[in-house]
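Dear colleague,

Thank you for sharing your sequence with our group. We've completed the structure prediction you requested, and as agreed, I am returning the results in plain text so they can be pasted directly into your records. Please verify that the sequence below matches your submission; if there's any discrepancy, let me know and we will rerun it promptly.
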Amino acid sequence: MRIEQLEYVSAVVRLGSFRRAAEEIHVSQPALSESVRALERELGVDILERGRHGARISKAGRDLLPHVLTVLESVERLRGAADDQHRSARVLRVGTVTAATVPLVAPVIRRFRAAHPATQVEVFAVEHAEVQRSLLEGSSDLGLVNYLKGDDMHAELDSTPLLSGRPVVCMRQDSELAGRAAVPVRELGEAPLIVMRSGYVMHRFVRRLLQDQMPGSSYSADGAEMGKLMVAEGLGVTVLPDFSVIGDPLETCGVITWRPIAGDATTVQLVMQRLRSGWPPAAANDLHRMFVQRAREYRAARAASQAAG
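Please find the predicted structure tokens below.
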């Protein structure tokens, strides 16, 4: 039994003629007729009654027709699902808090584009909760978020740790704080401070670090990249995970630098998340794999650099 045989039967019943069914399906009438005959022999039932004025369904065929239509509807749904997956594989959406654009996101997108030139990757930057909301709603495929040590992972999302670091103070090279080996919390609280907008993990960390005593001279930034640009423009200092600063073009060309926070041992973890349920497109799985691979490479290179230093 083949799917096209069921489609032929359905067409003949709907049009009342082998000729009209053959014309609609674009097969020869003899081939269509013989295919339906083969199905009837296989089932041991005459599904159609043939006459000089056309064809109509038999009594036995009427009993079988609902099953034929159910199979065809299921096949159509399967084809539609496959088509949806194919289209979704052409555009992958990745939400990120922009904490690791330079060491992770940019290299992975470059690598993925080389392997999947026909697939578009849309990266959008929002805060932590919005990244997770887009995953739960199905409007994005992967998400990059930060967690502080001790935070609970989202129960409905699969979480893959990628990078781990510590919060550091990001500043211009000519800042007075750049002369410190580590920045005391008191001096951080006295400096013009660029704080991540509410909803970012670094916002929560800074408020906790300063015991909610935010300095009078402070700014709000929507993500790490904007925060680094504001630092480069001399508006103040900001607090970011070290993997967001080390290797950034602004850092490598000497515009910004960083120092650890004195007495602080907090750990920040960058995590890749996706829905636990469902069947993601193959391209999304490949992109996920590339993120994991690039994170492994970055950790190894950083460990080698620290050992050499």
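Summary note from our side: The chain has three domains: 3-87, 89-158+274-308, 167-266.

Kind regards,
the structure core
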